[in-house]
Amino acid sequence: MRPLLEGQGISKNFGGVQALDGIDLSIDGGEVVGLIGPNGAGKTTLFNVICGLKPTRGRILFGGEDITGCPPHQLCRRGIARTFQLTRPFVELSVRDNVAAAVLFGRNHRKVSRLSEARTEADLVLSWVKLDQRGDTPAQDLLFSERRRLELARALATGPELLLLDEVMAGLTVAEAQDMIDILGRLRRELGLTVLVIEHVMKVVMTMCDRIVVLNYGSKLAEGAPEAVARDRAVIDAYLGVESA
Predict the structure, then answer these.
(1) Which of 8, 66, 122, 170 has the fewest CB neighbours in a 10 Å radius?
(2) Contact, 59 vs 238, CB < 8 A?
(3) 154-208 per-position pLDDT tens digit
(4) CB 107 within 8 A of CB 160
(5) Could you give the CA distance from residue 55 to residue 71 in angstroms, rounded to a whole number?
């Protein structure tokens, strides 16, 4: 059985800077994979290549089909969604309508063609991320942690098979991060999502992930089960440090 997502020999240069150097990546359906490494390791660049940025070399396969360089809107309707480090909702729209827009744009756009239907679907998605009491609130009035959950809700509303999370915990308090961990765990159990997550909070990575891929200076440094990666001397030296490991 083929992996859901494959990256084959992915390299990306920006002028004289090599951001990625021959990365191979494979993710099975239903798997949660963590992508970790120091700042500048190439993590977000790899996300961008998966989401349509054309690599210098290599290719991306999704469900066995070559999607290298496909425009993001096509990838969304194929079943790939992502969040971003910087949340940028439609601030003057309500929380509900932010999510409804994603429903209308996403993979099920032919089944849900009316705004009233999209709003009903949006309310369901908002309940998943504990924002169901904030549907009528303008997005600009949300707390920072609520904006993080709205970003997740908009991605989920597109109906993805593969969800890419780019530092979804960044800036959250310990309690808010634990709440997000609980939400993501429930979504995985109930929706069977396949997830690739960039995260610096090691508790999140160790708790959520089946497998971890470590990047360093654009190359793959290590890959394996969380416990094995956390004990890898090269990973400790390059990223974790003795105390964290």
Answers:
(1) 66
(2) no
(3) 999 999 999 999 999 999 998 999 999 999 999 988 998 999 999 888 878 888 8
(4) yes
(5) 13
